[in-house]
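Structure in, sequence out. Go:
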């Protein structure tokens, strides 16, 4: 069975458009669980553009499936993660200008900041995952840091058309092979939706997919529970 992590950031994006109290990502998380989510992912960004500190506290207290706290290697958010203790911490690169996370972490070129963040999270008993491009050398570098999982960046795959689609899918497969051979859990995410998710779910060794924008968009039309249940059904067919 492929585990489905539902990213609820964009429920908070709608709330922050008015800086009010609704819609509440904490309620969305509970509904996502009812729809069959195996985990809830949230990204506390440096600029607090969507998820707020209050959301993180309440999500960790109330979510009954896995919590996956996405964060940059920055002291401010690392200290919050270490205090609230989510099940998982997912380290990502972050820049202020980006609309969404644009590329994977450069683990190969790490100046020590990624390694130090991993050590800090592991010492707090939090499982760690690194968001990286589907590059076999980045996967090997991630394994050297002793992380529990890598999340392969599926953004380029999601944008690829025709021949480029096969090239990107192949990069994901090859990076996935190395991750599995190194004994890490294989996760993937970014840009996945109801129509492009199947080939990624079918990659050998794939354990977890993290999906946000597409599910939240669908939830506007049919409600969060049904939007998650629809994605759950697609993944269940793949596993059958
Ligand atoms: N994984 C990571 C590391 C992300 O930054 C995001 C976007 O917040 C996702 C997965 C989910 O991407 P999307 O919202 O495109 O489904």
């Amino acid at each position: 069975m492929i585990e489905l992590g539902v990213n609820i950031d964009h429920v908070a994006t709608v709330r922050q458009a008015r800086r009010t109290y609704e819609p509440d990502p904490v309620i969305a998380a509970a509904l996502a669980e009812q729809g069959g989510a195996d985990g809830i992912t949230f990204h506390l960004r440096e600029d607090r553009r969507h998820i707020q500190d209050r959301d993180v506290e309440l999500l960790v207290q109330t979510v009954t499936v896995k919590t996956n706290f996405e964060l940059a290697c920055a002291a401010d958010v690392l200290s919050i993660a270490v205090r609230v203790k989510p099940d998982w911490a997912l380290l990502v690169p972050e820049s202020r200008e980006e609309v969404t996370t644009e590329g994977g972490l450069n683990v190969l070129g790490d100046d020590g900041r990624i390694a130090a963040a991993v050590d800090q999270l592991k010492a707090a008993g939090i499982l760690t995952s690194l968001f990286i491009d589907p590059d076999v050398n980045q996967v090997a570098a991630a394994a050297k840091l002793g992380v529990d999982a890598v999340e392969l960046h599926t953004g380029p795959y999601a944008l690829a058309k025709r021949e480029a689609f096969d090239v990107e899918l192949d990069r994901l497969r090859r990076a996935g092979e190395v991750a599995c051979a190194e004994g890490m859990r294989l996760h993937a995410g970014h840009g996945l939706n109801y129509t492009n998710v199947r080939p990624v779910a079918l990659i050998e060794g794939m354990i977890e997919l993290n999906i946000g924008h597409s599910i939240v968009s669908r939830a506007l039309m049919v409600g969060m529970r049904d939007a998650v249940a629809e994605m759950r059904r697609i993944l269940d067919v793949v596993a059958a």
